[in-house]
Amino acid sequence: MAIFLTKDSKVIVQGMTGATGMKHTRLMLGDGTNIVGGVNPRKAGTSVDFDGRAVPVFGSVAEAMKETGADVTVVFVPPAFAKAAVVEAIDAGIGLAVVITEGIAVHDSAAFWAYAKAKGNKTRIIGPNCPGLITPGQSNAGIIPGDITKPGRIGLVSKSGTLTYQMMYELRDIGFSSCVGIGGDPVIGTTHIDALAAFEADPDTDLIVMIGEIGGDAEERAADFIKANVTKPVVGYVAGFTAPEGKTMGHAGAIVSGSSGTAQAKKEALEAAGVKVGKTPSETARLARAALSA
């Protein structure tokens, strides 16, 4: 079992013929991802060779879906064109769109998120500005390194790409059911809560690790959801305990003002919901090990 992505997922790559798309398509194929095509209207009808495997290029997401049965798209389109790419995927009715692109205007992200909702939420969006998701040993949709962990029974959801990788590595001997990097932009598609609900329903996930960051109130809302709906043990980490107040830090998505949005406030909210919260990634990994052995 896994959430959102399995060995049966048929993946296309929007922007596959660009330098970044080419690089990560090759890596995803190496991780066993079933990539069935790329999308580039200017190169439709051609194919790209990846170490002896020819991957066809289609003119649109709809055409790719019709010809291959694709149900996942990974978006490596430059920021200025990303909104149109995601809207195209939504119009085609693809089940999952993983938007890796960073630097997308917040207005554009809000627009395609609202468009997906107006279309009945038939397309789950992960991202933007995210590392994607991986089900170790099955499929990898994005830029998460596929060789730093193994299949296991921990579910991971994280705002931060780098901390996703670190936590996967710290707990590599136990392994993960799925790891989802949701991104840290102010407007994202899939949230902590969405992933928590999916992991709660997944019979092969025994423990959930949740990584947050300063800014916004997503972690506080997740804490309320955990208290009301999650029966599995949850371990958390919030990046930014030493961040100064009143300053936007990295891609955390919001300015910290007073106690609102601080790491300490998020830690307290999560602990009130029964989540054990580490002060460092390594401490969080130790808490996860203890929870699994309890």
TrEMBL record:
It comes from Streptomyces caatingaensis. Substrate binds at residue 165. Belongs to the succinate/malate CoA ligase alpha subunit family. GO terms for biological process: tricarboxylic acid cycle. Succinyl-CoA synthetase functions in the citric acid cycle (TCA), coupling the hydrolysis of succinyl-CoA to the synthesis of either ATP or GTP and thus represents the only step of substrate-level phosphorylation in the TCA. The alpha subunit of the enzyme binds the substrates coenzyme A and phosphate, while succinate binding and nucleotide specificity is provided by the beta subunit. InterPro entries: Cit_synth/succinyl-CoA_lig_AS (IPR017440), Citrt_syn/SCS-alpha_CS (IPR033847), CoA-bd (IPR003781), CoA_lig_alpha (IPR005810), NAD(P)-bd_dom_sf (IPR036291), SUCC_ACL_C (IPR005811), Succinyl-CoA_synth-like (IPR016102). This is Succinate--CoA ligase [ADP-forming] subunit alpha. Its EC number is 6.2.1.5. Residues 4-104 form the CoA-binding domain. It catalyses: succinate + ATP + CoA = succinyl-CoA + ADP + phosphate; GTP + succinate + CoA = succinyl-CoA + GDP + phosphate. The lineage of its organism: Bacteria, Bacillati, Actinomycetota, Actinomycetes, Kitasatosporales. Keywords: Ligase, Nucleotide-binding, Tricarboxylic acid cycle. CoA binds at residues 17-20, 43, 100-102. Heterotetramer of two alpha and two beta subunits. The keyword Cell division does not apply. PANTHER family: SUCCINATE--COA LIGASE [ADP_GDP-FORMING] SUBUNIT ALPHA, MITOCHONDRIAL (PTHR11117:SF2), SUCCINYL-COA LIGASE SUBUNIT ALPHA (PTHR11117).
